[in-house]
Amino acid sequence: YTKQKGDLKITKTVDAENVTEAELNGALTFTVQNKATGKYLDADGKISDKAVKITLGKFTKKDGIYVLEFKDVELGEYEVIETNTDIAGYTLKLTSTTKGTKKVEDGKEAVIALKDIYEKSVGSLQITKTIDGLNVTEE
Q1: pTM for this one?
Q2: CA 136 to each of CA 52, 131, 139: distance values in angstroms, whole numbers, following the listed order
Q3: More confident residue, 21 or 50
Q4: Statement: residue 4 has pLDDT above 80
Q5: CA atoms within 13 Å, Cβ hemisphere of 128
Q6: Rounded to whole angstroms, how far apart are CA atoms 22 and 28?
Q7: What is the Cα–Cα distance from 139 to 136, expressed in whole angstroms?
Q8: Sign of CA dihedral 42, 26, 81, 6
Q9: H/E element holding 71?
Q10: Exposure string (b/e) for 88-100, b if CB count within 10 Å is 16 or more?
């Protein structure tokens, strides 16, 4: 008797102008949970009773896409949630995909694709000028 297992692959695309790898790797975190068992996976595919935050730095970058693969995981429905998307100076657009669910079946690979789209945060500036003096004429 062999236990049935499958593979889970998470892909992450980030669309952000001028955001550094260091900022992304340190900021973005994820959890991976088997919805049937309630257990979580860590970055190495080990099972945990508690939520384990996985940083983007644990992913491998291939052709501009970040990939994290889990081989021979228990079957079931897995949910990936991006638990932190904050990058200083940037705003995450609502069109981003920050969570996904897929069923891992025996001998097959399930792929969950996530995508973050950031735009540079723009502030406002107000300038006030006060003139104090005699014989000032308005031009």
Answers
A1: 0.84
A2: 67, 8, 9
A3: 50
A4: yes
A5: 1
A6: 10
A7: 9
A8: negative
A9: strand 65-74
A10: eebebeeebebeb
pLDDT of residue 108 exceeding 80, the answer is: yes
Question: 45-51 long-range contacts, Cβ below 8 Å, gap at least 24?
Answer: 45/70, 45/71, 45/72, 45/73, 47/74
Across the range 77-100, mean pLDDT stands at 94
Which residues lie closer than 8 Å to 119 by C-beta, 6 or more apart? 90, 91, 93
Task: Measure the CA–CA gap between 40 and 22, rounded to whole angstroms.
Answer: 26
Residue 116's closest CA among 27, 31, 43? 27
Tokens read off for 109? 């690979």
In the predicted structure, residue 129 carries a pLDDT above the cut 80? no
Tokens 């000032």 correspond to: 136
